[in-house]
Amino acid sequence: MKIKVSLAILACRLTRLALRMLKRGGTALPGKVALKICPDLIAVLAKDAHIIAVTGTNGKTTSSRIMEQALADAGLNYFANRSGSNLIQGITADFADNATLGGKLKKDWAVIECDEAATKKVFALMQPEVVLVTNVFRDQVDRFSDVTVTLESIRTGLLGAPNATVCLNADCSLTASLADDIPNKVVFYGVDAELYKTRVAEQSDAPCCLRCGATYQYGHRTYGHLGDWSCPDCGAKRPAPAFSVTQLLQSDSDGSRVTLRTNDEERECYVNLPGGYNVYNAIGAVAAVATAGIPLDAALSACRDFRCGFGRMERFTLGNTPVRMILIKNTAGCNQVLNFLANLESPARFVICLNNNIADGTDISWIQDVDFEMLVGMGDKLQSVTVAGTRAQDMAQRLQEAGIAEDKLCVCTDYGELLDAVAAAETPVFIMPTYTAMLELRERISRITDCGDFWE
Predict the structure, then answer these.
(1) How many C-beta neighbours within 10 Å does residue 5 have?
(2) pLDDT category, 196, cuts 50, 70, 90?
(3) In this structure, how many other beta carbons lie within 10 angstroms of the beta carbon of residue 40?
(4) Cβ(429)–Cβ(441) under 8 Å?
(5) Could you give the CA distance from residue 7 to residue 22 in angstroms, rounded to a whole number?
(6) Of the candidates 399, 384, 387, which has an alpha carbon nearest to the alpha carbon of residue 352?
(7) Per-chain mean pLDDT for the chain
(8) Which of 21, 51, 125, 451 is a plausible cystine mate for 43, CB 3.0–4.6 Å?
(9) Tens-place pLDDT, residues 224-269
(10) 383: part of which helix (H) or strand (E)?
(11) Alpha helices in 22-118 (DSSP H)
């Protein structure tokens, strides 16, 4: 067995080294090679580690980065799957890369982002101490035909790790329902404050009670189906959160200042990324690392100082133009980006890059449910919208249906020309790509800026 482990680690490292020399990510194939040699390599390597895992539809990468920063601020040595390769192959590769050839991890802690479907295998192998579940939304319909499919995948994963303490988003009725039939200890977190002055028109992904089918009522609603939900018929309701945001003190294009309540104290916290959804990422991450025994001061400083994940509100400067890149991948996430953009106080230009490759999700019908109509209300603050990607024409048509004026709408089929136009812009530009478009754009940007490669 020891020989198989050593061979798997060596093969993984050599494969990754070769791919990195070719300037390719080397995030999944090395792990695939390792798994061929030793299928349970994660279980062998993870047995002595303190592991915090995060899963859910939206917010995995940002939550992971906050938790990484908290471990660093607490003086702990750790590793993480920073590339975002969150299927079993990518996770295996990162474990192997952080182990000796003898099969012992070099770090005491790990922060592991895991795809919702992959939890079914990964959690049983990894046996995390703490699991953060961010939310469940409709996403990648070609993979997850319904939100209940996503929910069941996560439930199966948690059942495979019964000793983990699970941090659940109390505001998401789907996520909160996991507590009903898992043996794990559960800690709830949530938001008890309004997050936006102006909100998009949204369809709920969970309008009805999972127990009796009645329509939920809300004391307050943050976005999507998240909020203070309750069932008027059977009495099911949002659990009381042990960690919550009680007040939004300030919000601008740089970040948010909030009041955070734990079981026994109230503290002020600054989240150094804008948008209400990042407030959720912050409170979830604080709940998870505090549950893992990390001091609260380290968790709060992490929210202030962490470096965002690639493409997640990431900042660049092209020419003299300030640019933010914001990943979009489903209706709920895109609507929250629009919430942020519609609340901007200064003029800006937008770029939307829509691909439908396998990693993006081949079904793009989700764009029909996004409230792009909200952009019309921005008036002169919205200076232009450029669309690109393999499905640029579909996006252009959707924006025309939303009422975007023709003189503000442009289709660009070449990413080089697109970035040249961005660099020549006289106002801030916000680029909203789907996953594979983000990787290609970011690779081009890394050639002309110091942002580094996406896996760093």
Answers:
(1) 22
(2) confident
(3) 15
(4) no
(5) 23
(6) 387
(7) 90
(8) 125
(9) 899 999 999 999 999 999 999 999 998 887 889 999 998 778 999 9
(10) strand 382-388
(11) 29-37, 41-46, 60-73, 88-97
